[in-house]
Design a protein that fits this description.
By secondary structure, the chain is mainly α. It is built from 12 helices and 2 strands, in the order αααβαααβαααααα. Helix 10 packs antiparallel against helix 11.
Length: 266
């Protein structure tokens, strides 16, 4: 089923509560609340969920920094403009200490480090609060927790396991090109940059969230990123620094700001 980006403002609060708030999926998967009841109504009973860049003979990481960056757990100090995300000086160093603890507990090879930390820190969450709002409707199958599915996955050509290739080819073969959906080649399914540019209502909602970000988040920085996305500005990179796309920074700021606001109010 196509992602419906226009559902975000309507369903954000309910999705936030279902996901406990501390995940970008609250923003990018807000339409799950409609998709899974619809799938159940169409007769589907199980859904296979997995990240295509992981698993045997998948994409490889050549160094520790690239391994961490592949699933968004790099050190904040290594990321371009991270000094502008929050006001204050000590948080980046404390974040680095936490990352060092994860590295120390994982195998030394970068690719093994990537898969081990991902499997230990993120996949288990898919069995709990990340998925429970779907389990009322369909069974969620997490392939990298199932040995038989991992063996099957390892036989697929590498091109099918990166850049959402398998998903996109399956979608268009079953649904057809006549249903025009902006499917991203990386990250979560919908093309949120395009959606923001095409939907004034969605832009208004996101701008309102960013304009009211609580401390220590820097409102001006994230609003600047929103304007860059709306203008279609090219992503700029800084030599020696990791780059996080503007749309991902926006999504995380919205979710984190909502969580901080609720925590401060509670």
């Amino acid at each position: 089923l196509p992602w419906r980006t226009e559902l975000l403002p309507e369903q954000f609060e309910e999705m936030f509560l279902a996901q406990s708030g501390m995940t970008e999926m609250v923003f990018t998967h807000s339409d799950d609340l409609s998709i899974f009841p619809t799938l159940a109504g169409l007769g589907y009973r199980s859904v296979w969920r997995g990240d295509e860049v992981f698993g045997p003979r998948g994409g490889r990481s050549e160094d520790v920094r690239a391994a961490l960056a592949s699933f968004s757990m790099g050190r904040a100090a290594d990321v371009a403009e991270s000094e502008r995300w929050l006001r204050g000086e000590s948080w980046a160093a404390e974040h680095g200490v936490a990352i060092d603890r994860l590295i120390a507990a994982a195998p030394p090879h970068p690719a093994d480090l990537r898969d081990t930390i991902y499997g230990r820190e993120r996949l288990p969450a898919l069995l709990h609060h990340h998925n429970y709002h779907k389990l009322h409707f369909v069974e969620m199958i997490n392939p990298f927790l199932d040995a038989e599915l991992v063996r099957f996955w390892s036989t697929l050509p590498r091109r099918c396991r990166v850049d959402k290739t398998l998903f996109r080819e399956s979608y268009y073969s079953r649904i057809g090109d006549h249903v025009q959906v902006p499917i991203a080649t990386r990250d979560n399914g919908a093309d949120w940059s395009r959606a923001l540019r095409e939907s004034p209502a969605l832009e208004f909602w996101v701008r309102g969230k960013l304009s009211n970000l609580p401390e220590p988040l820097d409102r001006a920085f994230f609003l600047e990123k929103l304007d860059a996305v709306l203008q279609g500005a090219p992503e700029s990179s800084i030599p020696g620094k990791l780059h996080v796309p503007a749309i991902r920074l926006i999504a995380r700021a919205v979710v984190l700001g909502h969580w901080l606001g609720g925590w401060a109010g509670g």
